[in-house]
Specification:
Helices cover 34% and strands 27% of the residues. It is an alpha+beta fold and 79 residues long. A hairpin with a 2-residue loop joins strand 2 and strand 3.
């Protein structure tokens, strides 16, 4: 399990996700935006609350897991 995950603001999280190959899909309800990543030919769409001030490290890790990133991928992103 990755241990070097910091607390992130929503814009910082989106910037990291875009660098890792995730792209914007569409606006959701309320403050949510939906982001998209294809993993092994399957589409993964994850909502991210853009109105949230700061995401805790466990929540950031959960978002990366929903997109299908492995522990090695997550460690490379947070180097």
């Amino acid at each position: 399990m990755p241990k070097n995950i910091p607390s992130l603001k929503s814009r910082q999280l989106v910037r990291l996700l875009k660098q890792a190959g995730v792209r914007f899909y569409r606006e959701g309800k309320g403050d949510h935006s939906l982001y998209l990543r294809y993993v092994e030919g399957k589409k993964r769409v994850v909502p991210i609350d853009m109105g949230n001030r700061e995401f805790s490290p466990p929540y950031v890790l959960r978002i990366f897991r929903q997109f299908g990133f492995s522990d090695e991928d997550i460690n490379e992103i947070f180097k």
